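Key result, reporting period 2: structure in, sequence out.
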């Protein structure tokens, strides 16, 4: 089966292509349009059809529209009409009408496509498939939680033999994701995009309101959740987008985070009792809460917790395609990595450098150049290979730095133009991770868990150790990621520290860079010392300080 998956419903429009059960390509539209989350701040803009991502994915797979066996759309309008009729706000009917016209719109965007080949896959089934069918173990318990789907905000069950068997769900208006969004907006952040900032702020506070919130954010005893109205202003004054955020804001964030973790644990216990599986697969926006993921890993009943790296709505493009492929009888081959986006040849990169009329030098070992620069406390923009699918930079489109000086946290946040309380992440060789980072899974290649930094290492890793002594570590297997492995090795050779800082290569409000031009624009607009792009080194002010130093 040759299947194109499409998400264009709430936010993060994306496309993916699966051929005979193998993931060939996946990309978010924001990487092409340079509009973060695929939208300006309007309720309807998330419906944007990801035409550029679709075109690239098909080109990468070598497919023409007429050669597709199916196109999946990760939202089923029939479920809204059947289950929520008369209960949705006015614009929800407009959304549904838009989706009902998706076959015709896709046929217009993809000349030659038969509209009859468009298949609706319910939003939460697409989420569930994106996690379960790409997981290390294919027979798995699944828990999906987000803001909302057609009629629900959560579903959990068992994925076995390529089929999903739902066991519990939470009907709207109860929603863990929407509750967290309400808090996000109350604290002065963008409700649809900044939940991760609330998670970071929570580490500065104490869950002093957890008991008061127990009735409003609770497990329902049947595998789902209940969320009720909350008077946020009675617990903390409204925040402002410009800050500052005080103790009351941090305490409220910590309290809601505590309740989120508690109800997820209770739901996991309920699900394990009914499935008995070793593995729990998570998807949906709530699955990007790496603190809650770690609680589920450490204190939950499952041996393994697996999260699909593009766990948010972009991942439903992949999940919809995988679900239909499995239904058709294809054997699903989980991706070996999530570098599923665009890549560029050395010739293409060099032409971009020539067009930019910028000084550069070709290096025989760009990893060694970058590692030495990091050891000298320089900030390095790292652009290599195919782009990552999902919200995390995993060593393909990254901003790297020395993890030792505490001032580097402020320095990087200033480079990116973001809030001072935002942490940056350590990237560590997987064979050294256990001695430095405790708690959480031993292997964490997708940066979806937090770990305790060993006390004896906190002073040496001051830039990446958060205020609560944790860090969101990414483990790197040099066999799977040899180039990044060599950067870490070179840095360690000079400093004795097998850890470097990794944060996304972008500035505030902008998507992660995707193309050489994006990388050059970011390098030109931010105080970055070195751009390591393919085998080429571009130094600030054209200093020519590469291998010949």
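The corresponding designed sequence is given below.
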């Amino acid at each position: 089966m040759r299947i194109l998956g499409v998400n264009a419903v709430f936010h993060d429009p994306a496309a993916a292509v699966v051929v005979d059960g193998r993931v060939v390509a996946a990309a978010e539209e924001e990487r092409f349009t340079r509009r973060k989350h695929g939208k300006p701040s309007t309720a309807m803009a998330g419906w944007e059809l990801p035409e550029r991502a679709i075109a690239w994915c098909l080109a990468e797979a070598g497919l023409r529209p007429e050669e597709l066996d199916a196109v999946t759309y990760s939202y089923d309008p029939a479920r809204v009409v059947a289950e929520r009729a008369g209960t949705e706000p006015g614009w929800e009917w407009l959304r549904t009408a838009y989706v009902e016209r998706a076959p015709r719109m896709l046929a217009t965007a993809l000349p030659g496509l038969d509209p009859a080949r468009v298949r609706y896959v319910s939003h939460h089934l697409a989420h569930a498939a994106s996690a379960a069918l790409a997981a290390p173990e294919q027979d798995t318990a699944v828990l999906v939680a987000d803001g909302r789907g057609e009629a629900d905000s959560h579903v959990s069950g068992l994925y076995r033999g390529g089929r999903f068997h739902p066991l519990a769900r939470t009907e709207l208006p109860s929603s863990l994701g929407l509750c967290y969004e309400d808090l996000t907006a109350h604290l002065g952040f963008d409700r649809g995009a900044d939940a991760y900032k609330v998670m970071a702020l929570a580490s500065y506070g104490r869950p002093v309101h957890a008991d008061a919130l127990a009735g409003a954010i609770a497990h329902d005893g049947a595998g789902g959740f209940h969320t009720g109205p909350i008077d946020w202003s009675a617990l903390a004054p409204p925040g402002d987008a410009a800050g500052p955020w005080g103790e009351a804001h941090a305490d409220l964030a910590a309290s809601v985070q505590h309740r989120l973790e508690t109800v997820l644990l209770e739901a996991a216990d309920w699900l394990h009792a009914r499935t008995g599986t070793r593995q729990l697969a998570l998807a949906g926006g709530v699955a990007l809460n790496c603190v809650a993921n770690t609680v589920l890993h450490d204190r939950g009943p499952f041996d393994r917790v697996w999260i699909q790296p593009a766990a948010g709505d972009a991942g439903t493009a992949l999940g919809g395609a995988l679900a239909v492929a499995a239904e058709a009888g294809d054997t699903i081959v989980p991706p070996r990595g999530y570098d599923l986006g665009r890549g560029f040849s050395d010739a293409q990169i060099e032409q971009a450098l020539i067009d930019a009329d910028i000084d550069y030098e070709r290096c025989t070992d760009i990893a060694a150049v970058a590692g030495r620069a990091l050891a000298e406390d320089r900030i390095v923009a790292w652009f290599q290979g195919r782009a990552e699918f999902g919200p995390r930079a995993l060593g393909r489109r990254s901003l790297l730095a020395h993890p030792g000086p505490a001032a580097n946290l402020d320095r990087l946040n200033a480079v990116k133009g973001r809030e001072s309380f935002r942490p940056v992440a350590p990237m560590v060789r997987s064979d050294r991770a256990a001695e430095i980072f405790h708690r959480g899974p031993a292997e964490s290649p997708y940066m979806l868990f937090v770990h305790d930094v060993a006390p004896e290492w906190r002073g040496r890793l001051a830039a990446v150790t958060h205020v609560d002594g944790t860090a969101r570590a990414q483990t790197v297997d040099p066999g799977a990621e040899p180039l990044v492995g060599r950067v870490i090795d070179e840095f360690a050779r000079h400093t004795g520290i097998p850890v470097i800082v990794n944060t996304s290569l972008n500035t505030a409000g902008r998507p992660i860079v995707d193309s050489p031009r994006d990388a050059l624009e970011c390098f030109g607009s931010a105080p970055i010392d070195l751009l390591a792009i393919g085998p080429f080194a571009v130094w600030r002010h054209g200093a020519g300080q590469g291998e010949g130093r």
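The longest strand covers residues 152-160. The chain has 19 helices and 23 strands. This case is discussed further under Risks and Mitigation.
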